[in-house]
Amino acid sequence: MIDKNHKLLIVTGGFHTLALIENLHKVINQEPIKPYIIKNTYDDNAWLIRYSFDKLNALNGYASGMPSPAYYEWRWQTLLTFKDTYQKNNQHDLEFFNQEFYAYVLTLCHQLNEKSALEITPFIALKNTLEIATGLSALRGHYTPSRYDLIDGITTALTKGELDDGQAYLWQVVYEHLSGNKLGQVAKTQKSPALVANTYQKAQYFRFKLDDTLPKTRKLDTYRKPLHRQISQFMHLLYFLEVGFGQFMAGADFVSGTNLDLLFEEWRYAWTPSVEARLIELSETGNDLAVIATQKLLNEKEQFSKTGTPLLASDCAKLFAKACKIGQMTAFNQELKAYLHSDYKLTSLIDATAQLFYLWQGRALIDIDGDLLKDNMMIGIRQSIYCLNTLYDTTPENTDEHLTALIRLNELIKNIAISFNLGDEFLNAFYDNISYDELIKLGLYSLAGALYAMAYLDNKIGNDDLQNAIITAFATGTLPSDSVLYLQGIFKVAPEYFIGSPIAIHALNELIKRWDGELFLSLLPDLRFIFSTLTPRQSQEIAKRIAHYTGLSDDDEVFYTDLSISENEMMYGVQLNEKLIQLLNNDCLGQ
Fold this sequence. Notes:
Helix 5 crosses helix 6 (147-158) and helix 24 packs across helix 26. By secondary structure, the chain is an all-alpha fold. It is flat, with a radius of gyration of 37 Å. Among the domains are: 64-179, no CATH class; 196-284, no CATH class; 290-434, no CATH class; 561-590. The longest helix is centred in the N-terminal third of the chain and has 22 residues, at 93-114. It has helices spanning 15-28, 53-58, 69-86, 93-114, 122-139, 147-158, 168-179, 194-205, 226-240, 273-282, 289-307, 313-325, 333-342, 346-361, 363-366, 370-386, 399-420, 425-432, 436-441, 445-457, 463-473, 480-493, 495-499, 502-513, 517-531, 536-549, 567-586; strands at residues 216-220, 246-250, 265-269. It contains 27 helices and 3 strands. Pfam families: DUF5682.
């Protein structure tokens, strides 16, 4: 191909063919060939981006790509090396090309072995592949083994059984090696948006490897290293803008409040052409990632008004948390404070305050102002306590939601009091703003049971007070469904207290003894749901106490006799059992 006497076959079509014929005619007539004047017909906002081998390999056919670009790049470099070095020394070219091919296959086999794609040793894989590939090349009349000879050699030497039977990973590694992951460069004279250049330079400053498109892993010690906290904000910023540079794999999530005990973050990243394309798209809205992200948060806020959904304190707190993760804490601070003052939905206020508490717990990991968070939390707690009276409007549809809210607020108050050494100021205000007697009067028995259980755990009432309340809730004249709801509230807060209280278990036993069979079956699903929260050992403790009250011992066996089964049904069951035994014996599964 390099020698001027070598012949080159060009397969072309469309307008390329016409241009070649016109210029060929000029060459024959020895006329000068003038280059075509390329008119700038594209928009000023059109930009060139770097391209990669893996994308080039994916865009084949009419998408103007080519298969296995890394392989053909190696071929071209081999030709250049031969021309510049070995051809001058009159070395036999066939020997040189064969040696280069052997080295290439050796590299491929080592990569297959490193990625555990081989079922044989690398040496045997190299030997078998080379023998078959070179043999096919000679049989087909090729000067040196081609790409198709190599692929056919791998198919014969390294695949066992059907091609579709467990060979996908092998071919994935092979084609990754043939296609490569090299990332191209845009000419220095070509301009690019400032956002792309700034982001690339910042990624280089943070020592990300950007030379290829291979996915890499980066672990960040955000607890001890300030630089890693900056990198974390940079990665969260790109992740929020959907740039596609990094994928969050592990670490604390202060928005959802999960994995807060993790001190390290793990990211998987790769700089690809699609990353540059996304940055070019974002460059239309600005040149600063932080400004663009803030605008996106504002757009999310405006989306609530467009859909007619009122923005609650919890929604604003989520936007505030996202802003904190990307280093823009002040973006929604004033708005959040205003919503905490004006929101009267208890669940929203609790969610917002809990969100702020998550952020406060991770303040050292994401470099945010803890005092500012504390001020907002105090507002959220006070407003939540003030709105406790909204629980009096509980309906059967939102009973579970309000029960969970009551328990969450109690836990949140105690956690915040411990974190800031506040004493019992908020906890006392909590019990002053919700009345047990009012809950009983309104028939909100699950809330009442939970409230009294929490009051006992917080030392606001004594053991005798709680036991008397349980006895009253299970006393004669109380509706069974109300008693079950009261039991549900206690189990939601302190199931261990009920298990350790003989008086409470005895009261429950006396209550159930008064039920007839139909009533028991109607309430059985609720009872099963309540007791499903217990561990097997806890269930056994309650069962032992109930057995003691009914006069049973641990050695007694309880049988259930159903006399409604007819003789014909019994005989049919015996026949089915005999058939099952016969089938098991036929399959050698019988005893």
